[in-house]
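Hallway conversation turned thread

IA: we were arguing at lunch whether anyone had actually written out OmpA family protein end to end. Turns out nobody had. So, for the record, here is the sequence (221 residues) and right after it the C-alpha cells. Reply here if something looks off.
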Amino acid sequence: MRFTTLLTGGTAAAILLAACTPVDQYNPNDPNQRTRQGALTGAGVGALAGALTGEGGIDKRDRAIVGAVAGGLIGGMVGSNLDQQAAELDRAIVNDRVRVINEGNQLRVIMPEGILFAVDSASVNPGIIGDLYAVADNLNRHPDSRVEVIGHTDNTGAAAYNFDLSQRRASAVGAIIRDGGVAPGRIAAFGQGENQPVASNLTPEGRAQNRRVEILIIPTR
C-alpha cells in the first residue's frame, strides 16, 4: 500500500513537471530534450493508468510498473519523432520570422501576419508560399499526424469581422498546405479572431504578435 501511494504521488509529480516546462525553454541545441520529457510524461501517465486499473495492492503495483515502462517507451518515441520533425522544419523554412516550437506533445509553427498577408487581406503573400510548401513536404514525410491551422487577430475593429478574417486567413493557409499534397482529411482550418491573444493589445508591438496564423502538428500515434 505504501509503495502504491508513493508511486501514484510520483506519477502526479512527473506529469506536473513535464506539463509545466515553459515552451520557450526548449533548447534546439539539445536534440534529446523533448524525448526525455516525452518519456517522463508517458511513464507517469502509464503508471497512473496501471495503478488505477489494478484490483489489489500487489496487482496495482505490478500494473503501474508495466504501465510506466510502456508509457515511457511510447512517450519517448513520440518526443524523439517530434524532435526530428522540428529540426527538419527549422532547416527547410527560409523565413527567419517563422517560429517552430516543440511543445513535447505537438509542434506549433507560428507565422506572423506581416509575412503572410497584407493589411485586411486573406490573400497569401507569394513570398511565403515556398515556406508553406516546405511545411507541406514535411507533413508528407511524417504522415502520422493531424494538422490544425488557426487564424488569430488583434482586437482592433469589430469582433465579428476579426473572427471572419481569421477564418479566411486560416482557410487560405490550409488550402496551400493541401495544394502541397497533404491529405485534406488531415487538415482542419478555423479562426479564433481576437479570442486567444499572446500579448497585450494595448501596444502596437503586442497587437502585431497577436496577428498570426499557427499550424499545430499533432501526432496521431
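OS: looked through it. The longest strand covers residues 145-152.
IA: good, adding that to the notes. DSSP finds seven helices and five strands in the chain.
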